[in-house]
Every structure is written in structure tokens, then in C-alpha cells.
Fold this protein.
Amino acid sequence: AQVACTITELRKKLDPKTGAVVEENPDFIKTGDAAIIQVKPTRPLVVEKVKEIPQLGRFAIRDMGQTIAAGMVIDIKPR
């Protein structure tokens, strides 16, 4: 499914190789960086934590026809 979303918070910037936290609340992330972010969809969306149902726990973020990010759902805030 395609649903518009807003990135509401950049929580942590991670080292792509080790997964260790490099920076808390970064101002920006660049190509090749790994991060923990918070995303808010504009409409209801069916997702699950990747540890519970891996097929529903992965996503891609696209902008202007290009994939700008791919990731895994590590936590969900119910409405």
C-alpha cells in the first residue's frame, strides 16, 4: 500500500556497520546513514513489528519517484 507520511522526528543516528548510537536527536541524515526515526502516516496503515511478522515490518519511503529510505518497524504507537 502507498500512504503519504511525515517524518516527525530523527531520534538517533546509528553507525551503519555496528548499529551503535553515534548521535542523539541529529539535525539531519545523509545518504548511507542509518537512523531511528518516527514516521506518522496520513491515513491508517497496517504494519507490524519486524520481530513479530517480518513481512509486515519492512517499508520503503519514496519521494518524487525515487526511493530515499528503506527500513524496519521496531515499535508501533497505536492511535
